[in-house]
Each structure stands twice: as C-alpha cells, then as structure tokens.
Amino acid sequence: MTITTPFSILLVCLGNICRSPLAEGLLRNAAQRKDIDLTISSGGTGGWHVGNPPDPRSQAVAAAHGLDISQQRAHQVSVHDLKQYDLILAMDRNNLRDLKALAQNDAQRQKIHLFLEFAGLEDSDGPDVFDPYWDDSGFAGVYELIARAADRIVDRLTGN
Ligand code: 4NP
User: Fold this and answer.
1) Is the CB of 72 under 6 A from ligand 1?
2) Cα gap 107→5, rounded to integer Å
3) Residue 13 alpha carbon to ligand 1 centre in Å
4) Can you give the pLDDT at residue 106?
C-alpha cells in the first residue's frame, strides 16, 4: 500500500478505554521509530467513558513497557471522524459492524477495516482483538498482540 503522508489513522473499540488507547500509543510509537508521519487517534463506538483517561489496567500494562498513555481521553466516534481520517481500524467485528452502520457513503465505508486483518494477522491471531474489560488477566496478551500488529501496520504503510 502506498500512502501520501501525513496520513491519519483512527483506532476504534467499544469504550475507547482498554484496547484502542493501547493501539493509539503503540502505533504512534511504531511510526516514530520508523520515522513515518502518521496522525494517530482513537475512539469508541460507545459514549459511556467520554472524557475519561484509559482504564488503569491498560495504563499499567503500557507503563510496564515504558509507554505512557495517561494523557489520552476517551472520545466517541462520529460521522465527522469517518470523513476526517484516512484509515479507520476496528478492534473487533462488532466495532466494524457499528462503524459501517454509521458510515454515510462508500467512500467512508471503504476506509473501515478490521485491525488484525489490516495487519495481516487475521489467520494467526484474528479476527478480533479480545475485549479484556471483564477479565483482568487479558491485558498482557492484548498488549502483546496490539504491539505486534502495530509494527506490521507501519511496515505495510511504508511498503515493507
Ligand atoms: P474497550 O473495552 O472497548 O477495549 O475500551 C471496554 C470498555 C468499556 C466497556 C466495554 C468494553 N463497557 O462496557 O463499559
């Protein structure tokens, strides 16, 4: 895939407090390491946590790897986002369905993909990034999976 930079990516989960904040931090890091100009943000299809920082368990697993996501604040995805961002990546199939339902036209729909599928990890690890919200033990594995996917996504966008 050839992109024109700056290129913008929105990472989306349900609450925007567990998975997509990790994806935002990890993808931003991966882009900086490979010196590619990406604008990265995240959002939730649901609005329950709007304005809140990431879940303490996501902050903790990120901090354990030297990644600070504490300044992020949850945001609910709007049609404006679907117009604004170049690529919109959904953490699971429910998020994908909800984003596609929000889209107003084909141009918007075509920007929306499953995160692991876009990373080329669908067969080995997908299709969904498991929602760890109800299970404390899930955060370490979710971090590891999102980190691998973020590296693959940057490679794909840079033609590697
Ligand atoms: P996330 O996890 O979609 O990865 O942020 C969740 C966060 C909150 C809820 C569900 C999932 N919730 O039901 O409030």
Assistant:
1) no
2) 19
3) 7
4) 98
Q: What total number of domains does the chain contain?
A: 1
CATH code for the domain in which residue 93 is found: 3.40.50.2300
Sites in the chain below the pLDDT cut of 50: none
- Per DSSP bridges, beta strands 7-13 and 38-44 are parallel
- Residue among 11, 12, 14 to mutate when testing ligand 1 (max atoms within 8 A of CB): 14
For residue 60, what pLDDT is reported?
A: 98
Angstrom CA distances, 71 to 21, 93, 104, 115, 146, stand at 10, 27, 31, 23, 19
**pLDDT at residue 53, rounded to an integer:** 98
Q: Is the peptide bond before 6 cis (omega within 30 degrees of 0)?
A: yes
**Contact, 9 vs 40, CB < 8 A?**
yes
Is 13 near ligand 1, meaning CB less than 6 Å away?
Answer: yes
Q: What pLDDT, on the 0 to 100 scale, is given for residue 1?
A: 75
14 with 131: CB under 8 angstroms? yes
Which residue among the candidates 18, 19, 28, 151 is catalytic per the annotation? 19
* Ligand 1 center from residue 23 Cα (angstroms): 14
- Distance (Å) of CA 12 to CA 16, 117, 135, 159: 7, 14, 20, 24
Give residue 86's domain range: 7-157
